[in-house]
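Quarterly update from the structural biology core.
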Amino acid sequence: MNPESSFPCRIRDGILLINPKVKKQIADYCSGKKDADYWMILKRRYGDRSLDQNAWLWGPVYEQILKTVGEHTGIEKMDLHTTFKAMFSRHVEMVKVGERVIEVVKEKGSSEMTTVEFMEFVEQIRLWAGEELGIVIPDPEPALKKRFGWEKYL
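Predicted structure, tokenized:
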């Protein structure tokens, strides 16, 4: 069992709502724990990137790029993904440590991105591929664009 786990819930009018199925999952999770003190953390959930968005990135987007660079370099999809995360999802935060302020570089994983952040990430990859490799990665299928409201981001 994972040392940490998360469960979906909702707060409405200041009341914590948990559906019965999730309550059972929480009970099952807790039944395997030792008697001790624990922290329960509530964290606001934003719209995660969808499975269709993820499939489009790992399918047509990465495959188009690999057709161009993969056979010459031996690079694989995970290598591409790691490279693009480093290029397009890093940000710098200023953190105070004692009397000093230091820069900390953080990288957001694609599974942590909202649907909007994920589309912006993919768009940066598509623009890079066009500018650096001269390849055009087509938009997702029109039905998917409409279903997920992507047309406003493409």
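The first helix runs from residue 20 to 31.
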